[in-house]
UniProtKB/TrEMBL annotation:
Highest taxon above the source species: Eukaryota
InterPro entries given in the database record: Methyltransf_11, SAM-dependent_MTases_sf
Positions of the Methyltransferase type domain: 154-243
Name under which the protein is recorded: Methyltransferase type 11 domain-containing protein
Organism: Rotaria sordida
Length: 350
């Protein structure tokens, strides 16, 4: 996906000290690897459990993940390795277990897509069984009118599989199912749209679509204000925008570090958009030191924002909030503090 970078869930008490703003210099690198109690991810039971559960799920090792981690944890007591080193060693060991690569492929090709589509379907269809709760007051008649959708753009479409699935749900012809990213996945089910990140330009005409999705994409975009203006430009009046994001401040907190480690897992394991990067450069054998620098550089660029901060920015360019979809914690967990928000383009011209 794009070189990236509400659930209005109240944070649990994870015994964190008051977060401090990240200074994007050597302090960031030290913080990412730090075992210091207030910064240590692996020493924080709630977040380490969440991270191990995530790793176990995608590698199909839910039953064995603690066995491998506990062995590594004991080894780390006698070695001068940092927290990112532990993550890398754990993933390397899991990758050698028969069946783990097949589990990763299944997640990328089916499981993740099915899960995301089911979530989006609950926004499109208010009668659909869902694990969401709606945390804002809204008129149910303002939820998306399926019959009104005949053109669709997915910002940060990656391989385009989710994009095609959504477009097909609305019975949209391929010519009007647009997927935008910094690379072309050559998915024949969608129409690829190039994204000029340096100039913050989306190569679509004004008012050319009436539905846009940005699924954990916006926090990866450096020139976010310009891209949001582009989204407002290409969408028709009364068109819908759906975002999926983390409700997270850009702070040096355990939550932020946890989210950075989720991205590190994807880089180390060549998952998602990083699988495409891996295929392009598969003959390039990076040492762990080189890959670690890549992780640091990438995660430093991520610009997390709270649900309210996203709302403030989107309202400035002409989007009105209709509803925020929270994960129902009685049905699922949400350590990444993910949420969906549904917006509607007003008729003001910016």
């Amino acid at each position: 996906m794009l070189n990236r970078q509400s659930l209005t869930i109240k944070p649990c008490n994870h015994n964190e000290l008051t977060p401090t703003k990240i200074q994007h210099d050597y302090v960031f690198t030290r913080w990412m690897g730090s075992w210091e109690h207030r910064f240590s991810l692996w020493s924080n039971r709630s977040y380490s459990d969440a991270l191990l559960a995530y790793i176990g799920k995608i590698y199909g090792q839910q039953a064995n993940i603690y066995h491998y981690f506990n062995r590594l944890w004991n080894e780390s007591l006698y070695n001068t390795i940092d927290e990112l080193d532990v993550l890398n060693i754990l993933i390397e060991r899991l990758s050698k277990i028969p069946g783990t690569k097949a589990s990763l492929r299944k997640r990328q090709e089916t499981s993740r897509i099915d899960s995301r589509f089911d979530e989006l379907k609950s926004i499109f269809d208010k009668n659909y069984n869902t694990r969401f709760k709606i945390s804002t007051k809204f008129n149910s008649n303002e939820l998306i009118n399926k019959e009104s959708i005949n053109s669709y753009f997915d910002l940060g479409c990656g391989n385009g599989l989710i994009t095609a699935r959504i477009g097909n749900y609305f019975n949209i012809n391929k010519e009007y199912i647009f997927g935008g990213d910094v690379f072309n996945s050559n998915n024949q089910q969608i129409t690829y749209v190039s994204i000029d990140q340096n100039q913050s330009i989306i190569h679509l005409n004004d008012r050319s679509v009436n539905l846009i999705t940005c699924l954990v994409t916006l926090h990866h975009i450096e020139n976010i204000d310009n891209i949001l203006k582009e989204l407002a430009r290409i969408i028709q009046p009364n068109g819908y925008l759906i975002i999926r994001e983390h409700d997270c401040k850009l702070e040096r907190s355990i939550l932020t570090k946890y989210l950075h480690f989720i991205h590190a897992i994807m880089i180390i394991g060549h998952i998602g958009e990083f699988s495409y990067d891996y295929l392009l450069n598969k003959n390039e054998k990076l040492t762990w030191t080189e890959q670690k620098k890549k992780i640091i550089k990438y995660t430093k660029s991520i610009q997390y924002k709270t649900c309210q901060e996203w709302q403030n920015k989107l309202e400035l360019v002409g989007f009105d909030l209709l509803a925020i979809f929270d994960y129902d914690l009685n049905k699922t967990t949400n350590p990444q503090r993910l949420f969906y928000a549904l917006y509607k383009r007003n008729d003001k011209i910016n």
